[in-house]
Amino acid sequence: GAVVSQHPSWVICKSGTSVKIECRSLDFQATTMFWYRQFPKQSLMLMATSNEGSKATYEQGVEKDKFLINHASLTLSTLTVTSAHPEDSSFYICSARNPGQAPSTDTQYFGPGTRLTVL
Amino acid sequence: GENVEQHPSTLSVQEGDSAVIKCTYSDSASNYFPWYKQELGKGPQLIIDIRSNVGEKKDQRIAVTLNKTAKHFSLHITETQPEDSAVYFCAARDFGNEKLTFGTGTRLTIIP
Questions:
Q1: What is the per-residue pLDDT across B61-87, written as a single tens digit (0 to 9) for each?
Q2: Are the CB atoms for A44 and A95 separated by under 8 Å?
């Protein structure tokens, strides 16, 4: 299957600082990337959908000014958590849609996730 | 919008036996149904998927069945092994919608 990487895999930061998480599709060009967060023992919650070269579409209840998403190229999307607080501590996971995969274009691959801890 | 229900939430199976996880969806327009396996501290891994023009798909010990009339689909794992222990998520997406709607997950434990 296609490979999606995330960096860093974990990060600890002080309250009030900003943290940037990178998501890369390593062997395909992803026109669409997605950002999720996941709390312990819960399902994945979609935060936003990111299309290359355009503004991200945020889900209801997700603060776009707090979670800045940039999809600068077909292989890179970044999520910046601004002015992080302890309640932002979570597991953040990106995924990328592989538009060129035969026989269909539906497949979505996930990165390994980034564990964010805000002190 | 789409709503996906998943059962059971936890499942314990003796090694070598079969495991079945079931999901139901609400939107009849949904036409793509992937299953993901998530190990502790890792991202979800696609293990199998099925599209609405197919009723069953199999990949070695894993199979997925789809009943469009009843709007439910199931994951079947045969000859379970300890490494199958993980959380499994089903998902659904309708044609033209990029977003996946996930089920609540099933924690599968294989008992040696």
A1: 999 999 999 999 999 999 999 999 999
A2: no
